Amino acid sequence: MGGGAVTATGWAGRRVFVTGATGLVGSWLVRALLERGSDVTVLVRDADPQSELLRSGDIARTSVVNGAVEDLSVVGRALNHHRPDTVFHLAAQTQVRCAYRDPYETFESNVRGTYTLLEACRRHADWVHGIVVASSDKAYGDAATLPYTEATPLDARFPYDTSKLCTDVIARSYFATYRLPIAIARCGNIYGGGDLNWDRIVPGTIRSLLKRERPIIRSDGTLVRDYVYVKEVVEAYLTLAEHVRRPEVTGEAFNFSAGRPLSVLEVVEAIGKTMKVEPRPDVRGEAVAEIARQYLSSERARAVLGWSSRYALDQGLGETVEWYREFIAANGAHGGAA
Questions:
Q1: Rounded percentage of the chain residues whose pLDDT exceeds 90
Q2: Which of 250, 242, 261 is nearest to 137 (CA)?
Q3: Which of 56, 167, 208, 322 is the most exposed place for a label (fewest CB within 10 A)?
């Protein structure tokens, strides 16, 4: 493995490949890389015109490879033609309810997609010098002791959670066997402008309140989670890539958390406060395949990487609400596909 660590000021001119580039995190990560002067190639399966990557025009500043991450010929062609030295693997089916309804699709995307991407990186290891893989706090499953640390056993059971556990284990296998320079990110619930999955509590609540409707809570409102702002997640991924070749980082997983676990009802109340609206949620108690309490310690990320959460909840929600105000104003009251 050649090449050195990417430094915070060393992104200019670097060739970077991003899977899942049209998603919530991918769109903001691509923007951050472009702002730093990187030469970015993106993998796009479905070109959703409402994705922030497309709406912003950032996609026009990238090289686009069309296809599915599960297709080795597509991913291999992307790496061979564009020769990135840094790869961010974000592509995944990310919706818990979709995974419950159709586990096959989720396993194909999240499991096959991961080993396909890493196999392509193995075959092109002469120039791929750093890989960041997006796992999830869901990989831990229902642990008895909270918060989760990186020493907490991975014990996922439900389809989406299990798919992320597999992502995690496959990544560590490729490091242990082939010494690919991989680091793994485990984040809590990520929120921010650009998330158009209206089933999720943050965008769904904001859209409902902007439409003067009661937000729907599909659980009983007591589920406790981490909520971490997308811009902080982008910084986490960039930081991992900058340090990926350090012995204490390569092959390792790191938790990234805002350090403030909240119930669903508390999140809805916080959004209402930000928007100066009484939310009066419609609590339905219909959630399935959900764990009651999940939250992370990111102490290791602070100690080893120097990363820590810097956005207060009101600041992150404030920026997020403004994004959705503009988006819904531009797209009508429906605010995009449900």
A1: 88
A2: 261
A3: 322
List the domain boundaries for the chain.
Answer: 15-191+227-256, 201-225+259-293+311-331
pLDDT at 4: 41
Fold classified for 201-225+259-293+311-331? UDP-galactose 4-epimerase; domain 1 (3.90.25)
User: For residue 148, what pLDDT is reported?
Assistant: 96
What CATH fold (topology level) applies to the domain 15-191+227-256? Rossmann fold (3.40.50)
Catalytic pick from 115, 140, 148, 160? 160
160 noted as active-site residue: yes
Q: Tell me whether strands 189-191 and 227-229 are parallel, antiparallel or unpaired.
A: parallel
How far apart, in Å, are the Cα atoms of 56 and each of 38, 59, 195, 337, 338? 17, 8, 14, 18, 21
Per-residue pLDDT for 336 more than 90? no
Residue type, 210: L
